[in-house]
Every structure is written in structure tokens, then in C-alpha cells.
Amino acid sequence: MIELNLSGNNLGPAGAHAVCQSAGAGRLESLHLDENALGPMGARVLAATGRLTHLRTLGLGRNELGHAGVSQLCSAASLGHLTRLLLPVNDIHAEGAGAIACSPHLTGLEELDLSHNPLGREGAAALAGAHQLGRINRLTLHDCDLDEHAAAALRHSPHLVDAAVVDLRFNPSSRPGPSIHELRDQTIDEIQRSFQALASQGDEFVARFYDEFFARHPDVRPLFARVDMKRQAQHLLSSLVLVMRKLRETPDLEPSLIAMGKRHIGYGVRPEHYLALITTLLDVLAEFSGDSWTPALQDAWREGLFAVCALMMRAR
User: Fold this and answer.
1) Which CATH superfamily hosts domain 3-167?
2) Which pLDDT does position 316 carry in this prediction?
3) Which of 28, 100, 138, 180 could pair with 111 as two cysteines, CB 3.0-4.6 Å apart?
């Protein structure tokens, strides 16, 4: 066995220790332990084992590693063969990014994912200045609080010139419109009028959306394997009605959307799924709106949908 995925099992540090002491640990090339409540102690276990010497891919998303946990991983010479390090949603700040950037053991990384960690401008600067990361060809930093200055530092880094992909979606620097607090009254008016015009076709609209969504993105179908789709369609329609009603009441809407985003994390929804949802929704809206669909209305809906999804992705 060279690949092992035990994500979502709440193993904790003791479980990580058991994995490291297993007979096949020394042969593993890919290990995914996402969502296992490892914390810094679990990272310490992985770093100290000395048995994961063939590991190329390590996925530890949603484990609350923090700076202490990341520092443990960065100090592990036994992880020196890693080419893919995936650490989304781990409360990693600028300090943690700095530890990765300075690690002498991670110089072989070709892919690094630090999405949904509050790296900010200082974290981006640390990554941009890391000559040790010169082999990176894919850097994914979704929702990392990166402003225009941070984005510019990464895009113009002399050490990331060979990176085929520097993915900065869902950051302030790449947001295709205002936040939900910044939506103009005119934008809200246009969205609400458009939605009201479709109210009588609500059931048909959501049914058409899911048909199109699954046709375009068959990879999301397994997320709905045990779902009653009639009930799911009603959930979507109810959620849209709620958002439409509360668009001007952001103090009430914001916690509802963040809670909704948290539930979706549990369903297995990833950031890229939101973009797929938005593009599909826009096309189905255009189909049902007919001649009333204009470029201005499309822009209004795009701004509104991105603002809503950005809030949902703030869930941790």
C-alpha cells in the first residue's frame, strides 16, 4: 500500500501515532489525514516519526495545526521528499507561512495549498520571498485575506516565476464585486425584482438548475448520493427566498450565511464548487428570464451571488 486516506475519522494525535507505527508506514507515498483533530501535537507526532521517508503527498486540511503545528512539520527532515503539501483551514497566519518559506526540508515542494488561512499581506510576502520554494508549480491561496499588494507580491515574485498556477480566488484582491455590505441599492432592487418575476416558476427553476449543475460538474454528484433531491430542491429555493428577503438586513443575514457555509463544509463542499454554482445559476437565470435578462441584470446577479458565497466561505 502506497496511498492511505483516513480523512474525517477524528483520529487525534494517538491515531496519527498508530498510522506512523503501522507496518506499511515506511512505504507510503500519499497520506491524507484531513479533519482528524490532530492539532499541534498530531503534527509533532508526524514530524517525529522518522518513518514517512517515502512520502510525496501530505494532506492535513482542517486539523487546527496553527503556527506550532506547521513549525513541527517544517522542522522534520523525514518529510524532505514531499512534493505536495495541502494545509487548508488550519488557522495558519503569517508566522506559519514564514516557517514554510524558510524550511530547509520543503525545498522539493511542487504544490502548496494554504487556502482558508488568514495569511494576510505578511504571509504573502514571506511566500513571495522564499527562494526555497522555487520548484513550486501550483500555489493555491483561496480566501487568505490577500489584498492587492499581497497579490502583486506573489505574482511578481522572482521565486515563483515557474509556477504554472498561482490561484488567489476568493480574496479581496480577486473579488469580482463588492462585499454583501457594499451592494448598492440599485443592485439589490434589480436582483429582487428579477427573482420575484421568477417566483411562479420556482420549482421548475431549481429542478433545471440541478439538472444543469450535475451535467456540467458530474464530480459533485457523489455529494448528493444520499440526498432526497426533491427536499434538496426545496432547501435551495427556501435559501434563495431567505437571501432575497434579507439582502438589506446584513446583520441578520451574515450569521445565517456563515452557518450555512459551515454546514456545507460538512457535506464536502469545496471552494471551487461555489464558483461552479454561481456560473450555473447565472446561466439558468438567463434562460428563465428570457428577454428581460440584460448585461446590467447579469452584473447585478453576479455581484450578489459572489457576495453571498464569499460570506459562506468564511465558515471554518
Assistant:
1) Ribonuclease Inhibitor (3.80.10.10)
2) 59
3) 138
